[in-house]
Amino acid sequence: MNILITEAEIGERIGQLGRQIEADYQGRPLTIVAILTGSLIVLADLIRKIQLPLRVALLQASSYKGATTSAGALIINESFAPDVAGRDVLLLDDILDTGHTLNTLVHRMADRGALSVKTAVLLRKKGRQEIAIEPDYCGFEIPDAFVVGYGLDYDDDYRHLPYVAVLPQLQGSGVDSDETGHYVRRTPQQ
Ligand code: 5GP
Ligand code: MG
Q1: Of the residues 37, 38, 145, 173, which has the maximum number of CB atoms within 10 A of its CB?
Q2: Residue 25: pLDDT above 60?
Q3: How many CB atoms lie within 10 A of CB 178?
Q4: Could you give all domains of the chain from N- to C-terminal order, each with its CATH number?
């Protein structure tokens, strides 16, 4: 496993982000809305670094299906939809890739009566954004590679790894981009 960001580096950065959020949301009705499933781990670590009254809500959104690294249509599970009316919403996702997920959900939260909507991501992939959305809080900028660990999966595996890594079998010729820029897995070359 090719480790990109170590457990210690993540821990230190989450602490910094927590203090920043704490300073910015003093006296505000903060609800952190985490986007399942990838942001579960960062959510658990981040909220324990914010010494403020806050609420936690969950939203399920997915665009990657099964054993593929290419994004399909965005599916939002509305049965989890939190009541955010009159709340300052901080949307939390594991990674900003094309930007479609966060952009869609920012509008969804505003439509549901949120007082304000900001965004936080653990990772931001360089050179992949299709929607101009600037995260208000960002842990790390990473190169254009498919990463796993610390909540991020490949076919629902690897979420439990305490670090962020690039899957060895997806490095090099095993993974490529299609004409839309999405990752597609090629059959390994002989
Ligand atoms: P976007 O809508 O910004 O293109 O994609 C965001 C979602 O795509 C993330 O919530 C995450 O689930 C998934 N994603 C994007 N890049 C990666 C990656 O490198 N690894 C994993 N495991 N998921 C990714
Ligand atoms: Mg996700």
Answers
A1: 38
A2: yes
A3: 9
A4: 8-142 (3.40.50.2020)
